[in-house]
Design goal:
Largest sheet: 5 strands, mixed
Number of strands: 9
Shape: elongated
Strand content: 15-25%
Oligomer: single chain
């Protein structure tokens, strides 16, 4: 069976794949792992185009044609200038942000949308152009509004002029692993490589029986208790044998069967 020699994965800002890369290199040294960062708006482009085998994505995503498994969730934070009142708190309820201008689509944060003073009054202004998280943070730094981000993303793009505080009452952000559902173009044996990587990411041990690499070793190992036949011997057939090699029908092959048969013959 031919075996894939490399695995390419992509990951969005906030995902730190280093620990998984090290585990993979320890367990699968013959299959090179390439991990490439991508922007969140393009998080599935490489997988769909065949340039990457798997992708760490920020959920939710359009699952059409994909296998997607959730991995973990993380807290959300509100990001504002360092002199903003939120800086005085360790965490803040979303209700406290009702009078703020959120630099995001309100539908992405329904808990904030439903209490927003501007939306209720019909005075909310259109969003300014923003092509990336960095550009949105530029607007926050300029005092034009606030952002709600996953905690890991806020840390990834940390700026001295900004402050991030945990915000409660909004949905947590999730990270998942995605790959194409149709495996027709995948090389032979690649499904086992995918399952192996999923196990690494989910924290399965190197000796877990759910790992394909472990299953393959178990299948190849001699079965416990199995003995090779003696040289020149012929396997027995037809049940227990008597002295002459024929089946011991009268004794039935049971312990003491021969003695009972002899007693019956003397009666």
């Amino acid at each position: 069976m031919s075996e894939p020699r490399e695995l390419t994965v992509t990951f969005v800002p906030g995902v730190t794949p280093g620990k998984w890369i090290h585990r993979w290199e320890d367990r699968m040294p013959d299959v090179a792992l390439h991990a490439n960062p991508v922007a969140e708006p393009q998080q599935l482009d490489d997988v769909r185009a065949g340039r990457a085998h798997m992708a760490f994505v920020r959920l939710p995503v359009d699952k059409t044609g994909l296998n997607v498994i959730p991995l973990y969730t993380e807290l959300s934070v509100v990001v504002a200038p360092k002199d903003h009142p939120i800086a005085a708190f360790e965490e803040i309820a979303v209700e406290e942000l009702a009078d703020e201008y959120l630099l995001a689509d309100p539908d992405d944060f329904p808990a904030w949308r439903d209490i927003s003073s501007e939306i209720q009054a019909g005075t909310r202004k259109p969003l300014p152009p923003m092509a990336s998280v960095e550009e949105a943070l530029d607007l926050v730094e300029a005092g034009l509004g606030i952002l709600i981000l996953p905690m890991s993303v806020a840390r990834h793009f940390n700026r001295k002029a900004l402050r991030a505080r945990v915000v409660t009452g909004v949905q947590d952000s999730g990270i998942g692993l995605a790959w194409l559902e149709d495996g027709a173009d995948r090389p032979e044996g690649f499904d086992a490589v995918i399952e192996e990587f999923i196990g690494v990411v989910r924290g399965r041990s190197a000796n877990s029986s759910r790992q394909p690499s472990v299953q393959a070793k178990q299948d190849a190992a001699p079965k416990k208790g199995a003995k090779a036949p003696a040289k020149g011997s012929t396997p027995a057939r037809g049940g227990a044998k008597g002295k002459g090699g024929g089946a011991n029908l009268r004794g039935g092959g049971r312990p003491g069967g021969k003695a009972r048969a002899q007693k019956r013959g003397r009666r």
